[in-house]
Design brief:
single chain; 2 domains; 13 strands
């Protein structure tokens, strides 16, 4: 018999407190005494590497119980992606897996596969990034599960979708290359560059999170019915190309690499000072006039070649050397202070350590300490970036060791109908 969705449900999750287990209990109640947004939502995480795990970590930060299914012995590929290593494992893995439980199941073993299916049938959300159709071959596809779990939200992540690209392997670096991002990244007279992080994976993770949250709300409104979401790296990249993508779609112009220059705004780039570069982001004509005054060259703002942004774009090859001549008289730090005091956006190029220090100085509290099962602090991570008012404090459980929760999760699965 096909199970029917419950039209009376108004909550986002379907797991009862008895089903939620100790980890969910710890996550659901935060120190302010306020329920976290996804309290009671159970996520079966069949994903690995980055896009899927980052999405499910975000859901966990918001209070969902996330059970990560991993291969016995090896686990998520990123557990071995080092250096660098922290005291507890590969920092790559740790960056996307806090607040989760790890259960080691061999999906080629009938008994373990049955447990995995039982987990999927209990879940509100399932996230996977196998090649399209990969889980279906194991009886864990959306069509295999929806009759018994009609409220399931099943999110499938792939490189190139489930149609013509279903057999293509999807990796961030590859999609940056074939999707056009590298063609607009790097020096104009040099080689194409990738972004400094796996940006397409991160974008796809954000899109997956948005999709899951939207589907949870749609389920609440639509008689408890779930849905199958498909997210792919190429579409996530194209959705993030914004002005550069629309230059092609709207004007037929294929953008090219410009280094750190902006195609439509000047000066919006790195400018050289006596000891190094300064990032300057002048967004309008009034700001440019103030900048020219602060640099001691106010007449530049009166020159018809530079008085408007469109004129500055047309004459950037003339303007930039004039600005750098003025900046060459002092250090990047000096000019950062001068321009900032004038209310203008400018800053030295710093490292990640400098960025953390800046965020701390600004009172943004960018990091959280994470604790192991004993409550001991074992590391520091960037926190969930949204600040709630009134406060909602996300859980801070350290990324799990491989199979750390296998026994407790299996006991829970076997003890429930």
């Amino acid at each position: 018999m096909t199970a029917q969705p419950d039209p009376s449900r108004t909550d986002l999750g379907q797991a009862s407190p008895e089903q939620s287990g100790t980890t969910a209990d710890a996550q659901g109640e935060n120190p302010t005494g306020t329920t976290l947004p996804l309290d009671g939502v159970l996520v079966a995480d069949f994903s690995r590497v980055l896009a899927g795990p980052l999405a499910t970590m975000t859901l966990a930060d918001l209070g969902a119980r996330v059970i990560k299914v991993e291969r016995p012995g090896a686990g998520d590929d990123t557990r071995s992606w080092g250096p660098p290593w922290s005291d507890t494992g590969a920092t790559y893995f740790e960056s996307a897996n806090r607040n989760k439980e790890s259960v080691a199941l061999d999906l080629t073993d009938p008994e373990d596969l049955a447990l995995a299916k039982k987990l999927a049938l209990k879940a509100d959300v399932l996230v996977e990034n196998f090649k399209p159709g990969g889980l279906a071959k194991l009886g864990l596809g959306y069509e295999d599960l929806r009759d018994e779990n009609p409220g399931l939200i099943y999110a499938s992540i792939s490189g190139f979708g489930s149609a013509g690209g279903r057999n293509l392997a999807g990796y961030d670096f590859l999609v940056q290359a074939v999707g056009g991002l590298m063609s607009i990244t790097g020096p104009a007279d040099g080689s194409p560059y990738k972004a400094g992080v796996a940006l397409v994976d991160v974008l796809c993770a954000k899109d997956t999170t948005i999709g899951v949250l939207s589907a949870l709300e749609a389920r609440r409104r639509n008689n408890g019915r779930g849905s199958h979401l498909e997210i792919n790296l190429l579409s996530s990249l194209q959705g993030a190309l914004v002005n550069q993508g629309q230059a092609y779609l709207g004007a037929g112009k294929v953008p090219s690499r410009m280094g750190n220059d902006h195609p439509s705004i000047v000066p919006y780039q790195l400018l050289q000072c006596s000891d190094g570069p300064l990032a300057v982001t002048i967004g309008n004509d009034g700001q440019f006039a103030r900048m020219a005054g602060a640099l001691g060259v106010p007449d530049l703002a009166k020159d018809e070649r530079f008085a408007t942004n469109s004129a500055r774009v047309a004459h950037r090859e003339i303007l930039v050397p004039l600005l750098e001549e003025a900046l060459s008289g002092d250090t990047a730090q000096h000019w950062e202070d001068v321009l900032t005091d004038a209310g203008l956006p400018a800053g030295k190029v710093g490292g990640i350590d400098d960025g953390v220090a800046l965020a701390e100085d600004l009172g943004l509290e960018p990091t959280v300490d994470v604790q192991d099962a004993s409550g001991q602090t074992v590391g520091r991570q960037f926190r969930h970036p949204v600040t709630w008012n009134p406060p909602l404090e996300s859980p801070t459980t350290a990324p799990p060791q491989l199979g750390e929760h296998t026994e407790s999760v299996i006991e829970w699965l076997k003890g429930t109908s």
